[in-house]
Design brief:
The chain is mainly alpha-helical. It contains ten helices and no strands. Helix content is 62%, strand content 0%. α2 packs antiparallel against α4, α3 runs antiparallel to α4 and α4 runs antiparallel to α6.
Length: 295
């Protein structure tokens, strides 16, 4: 199939990004990854008429998400898994976005991203099943799209890897360890087991991103050590703030250097300070949403 025919085929096929129903997204995801690996012609989200992925639940600003209840209750555990399902859904869709927008990236990189997308889909499925097993449904609480809006169609591949794999997913590693400790005293082990599975596999996702980030820096004649701090600083206003402390041990396991970990710790404090300043001076909600806490 020639490149033009590939594009026409993809354009005529329903994408998970246009599909609102979360169960339908899961049904479509494997075939979409397969199709996207067959094309080498990049397509931006604007060409697909995608501003944000379609949803079958209420989407609100991060600041408008209701407070959580305690994890000792079934509602609290279901709410936690619902929030995680939203994170895994966005992670899955961000991988699809990368396959669309960076179709000319090295095939090995794209194949690895497709594998990660399918693992995110598995995590989403686990979370949805857990929510339902606890007596609740997807959509019982509103969700946010903060992870999706951290990316932009004009990102370079290095930007995208740094934002998604090295910042957003790495932030999830820090949160995962904290959640496991909070769930250790909960009688029903369902939520803890799901969080543990996700945490173990997310380490591999971050490690994969760091490997390719460094390889691409080398290919472009850049020092990854210098570029990491400079690029993340340039993206300061794009990524969400995170209130969870950096977990040094987990990040080292994922492949972060000590210098990178130290920079992220300082970066985290600067982001939180920017949120405090924005709140104090009542800046527009869009600014606050960008700086919202990573779930």
């Amino acid at each position: 199939m020639n490149p033009q025919s590939q594009l026409e085929h993809i354009a005529q096929t329903k994408s998970v990004l246009h599909t609102a129903n979360v169960d339908e997204k899961l049904r479509l995801i494997e075939s979409e990854c397969h199709r996207l690996l067959m094309t080498s012609t990049p397509r931006k989200m604007s060409a697909l008429d995608v501003i944000e992925p379609a949803r079958d639940v209420s989407v609100v600003a991060r600041r408008q998400i209701p407070a959580r209840v305690g994890l000792q209750s079934a509602e609290g555990q279901a709410r936690l898994l619902h929030d995680l399902a939203n994170i895994e859904l966005q992670a899955m869709e961000l991988g699809v976005r990368t396959l669309y927008e960076f179709a000319s990236a090295p095939p090995e990189f794209r194949e690895g991203i497709a594998t990660i997308v399918l693992e995110e889909a598995k995590h989403l499925s686990l979370c949805l099943r857990g929510v339902r097993d606890l007596g609740f449904e997807w959509g019982a609480w509103p969700v946010h799209n903060t992870l999706w809006t951290s990316t932009h169609e004009d990102d370079s591949l290095l930007d995208r890897i740094l934002i998604v794999n090295c910042y957003l997913e790495a932030s999830g590693l820090d949160a995962g360890e904290l959640l496991l400790r909070r769930l250790s005293g909960v009688t029903n082990h369902l939520a803890r087991e799901i969080v543990a599975i996700i945490g173990d596999e997310e380490i591999g996702h971050v490690r994969y991103g760091l490997k390719w980030y460094r390889a691409l820096c080398t290919a472009e004649g850049l020092s990854s050590g210098d570029d990491f701090s400079k690029r993340l600083s340039r993206l300061f206003d794009r990524v969400p703030a995170r209130a969870v402390p950096v977990n040094t041990e987990t990040r080292e396991k994922a492949g972060f250097t000590k210098d990178e970990i130290e920079f992220v710790q300082n970066f985290t404090q600067l982001k939180l300070e920017s949120v405090r300043v924005a709140t104090k001076f009542d800046l527009p909600s869009s600014s606050l949403e960008r700086n919202g806490e990573h779930a």
